[in-house]
Amino acid sequence: MHPSGPETGLRGQTVVITGGARGIGLACAQAFAREGARLALLDIDLDALDAACATVRALGATCLPVQASVTDATAVAHAFSAIDAAYGRVDVLINNAGVSANKPTLDVTPDEWRRAVDINLNGVFYCAQAAGRRMVAAGAGSIVNLSSMYGVVAAPDRAAYCATKGGVVMLTESLAVEWGPHNVRVNALAPGYIDTDLLRDLQARGRLSIDRLVARTPLRRLGTADEVAAMAVFLAGAQSAFMTGHTLVADGGWSRYAYL
Ligand SMILES: NC(=O)c1ccc[n+]([C@@H]2O[C@H](COP(=O)([O-])OP(=O)(O)OC[C@H]3O[C@@H](n4cnc5c(N)ncnc54)[C@H](O)[C@@H]3O)[C@@H](O)[C@H]2O)c1
């Protein structure tokens, strides 16, 4: 029995995490390792991947690093073949790789728009399809897509981010209703502001002020990557067995607050 409650059922399962080399993806890898899962981490950054796998192995879990960009459907197909060769199955996909896109819309270039769509939406689709093929054939599986609170509420200067993350919410619902009869669940996580490199980088580039974000958040703090990882474990595992097509918002109350 897990010390914090009922079994998640993740022991021995193969969990694939995209963007697993740092931030929320790495925190997820550590959380699933603690549940006894076998990990495959997919990322573009090989050095960070190797370091992440070393961290995960120190927790006693098996970890396969796979270098690939989620924007390249062929590379994604090869990555899943490598995971098949290593583990023979895919039980859980955490579709986490994503980038911020934060700029006044009138200044956004076609390349910047395409990059956000490519990574945040196309990449999520390619990986969900690759995992879904295996899960539908096996008659079981669980996919967790990383959306954002900006997939459910809008903010200025984030048209590409809001559009792609909103797309992830609807992609989640579409896949859930299509693959539900095959016992494949698809849910989404919509975090608010989480203290990661992504956020620190935006502050360093003058795109946001963390102090102002904290002051506007009802819980008066940023979230942590470990808190998001705990919800990913919940959505991936047996504790949410009757949930599919759901977007779980965890934002310290941000999106519920009609700010004056
Ligand atoms: N940090 C936040 O406040 C926050 C809030 C809501 C949602 N999210 C979402 O959570 C996810 C993770 O965010 P994070 O803060 O951990 O980001 P991060 O920048 O800390 O880490 C992202 C990881 O994805 C990898 N990556 C980037 N492009 C890739 C590609 N094309 N193919 C494979 N890997 C790629 C990076 O190398 C990196 O390891 C993203 O989808 C993000 O939009 C983050």
Written account of the structure:
- The chain has a single domain, classed as Rossmann fold.
- The protein is of the alpha/beta class and 260 residues long.
- It is built from 8 helices and 7 strands.
- Strands 3-2-1-4-5-6-7 form a 7-stranded parallel β-sheet, sandwiched between helices.
- It has helices spanning 23-34, 46-57, 73-87, 110-138, 159-179, 197-204, 210-216, 225-236, and strands at 14-18, 38-43, 63-67, 92-95, 141-146, 184-191, 247-250.
- Nicotinamide-adenine-dinucleotide (NAD) is lined by residues 18-19, 21-25, 43-45, 48, 69-71, 96-99, 119, 123, 146, 148, 191, 193-194, 196-199.
- The site of nicotinamide-adenine-dinucleotide (NAD) has 29 residues, from helix 1, helix 4 and helix 6.
